[in-house]
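Quick question, first post here. What does this chain look like in 3D?
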Amino acid sequence: MPSEDHQYHPHDAVKAAINGTLITGAAGGLVSAIQNTLTKRNVSAWGVFTRTGGTIAIFSAVGGTYEFTRFAAANLRERDDSLNTAIGGFLAGSVLGLRFGSTPAVLGFGALTAIVLGAYDYTGGALTGPKNNREMDEFERKQELRKNRRRPIEETISELGEGRGIYGPGYEERRRERIKEKYGIDVPAKS
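> Answer (accepted):
Ran it through. Tokens below.
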């Protein structure tokens, strides 16, 4: 049921799963190496795989599961939206919960991960706010924003007063008159 103006293009779920597995597996290897160096007993360098290797496996499984499920759901539903991310997050979180060996942990980790990832994707997928229009030049966009928020100088002066870099037309003359009245000093006009 895709809309008339947007045609869905299928994604390669297996390729995404392999990429996700490799990337998160590398991150798991780094975490496993850190765990291995922080052990009290001196374990050999192979301890990264033998002693704390489960961390690598969990990271790899979570990344692969998330990527495969997200794109498989998108292909089945023929839509790119936040629900795909939530479905992938639920299964990836469930893999995390399997480590504890109880059904409430599996469901709880799955639900938590689904909610967090789904909400993150729904809100634009960035912590810095909505994405800008990629077609508009950045300089032009900032000029447009400045024009949109520009206020007349008279309004600014009436609210803030003159000084501190804000000067209205005829400011130099008014300043010379004030100094002449108050202190009796003639200030020459700038040429």
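Residues 13-37 form the longest helix (25 residues).
The chain has two domains: 13-122, 138-183.
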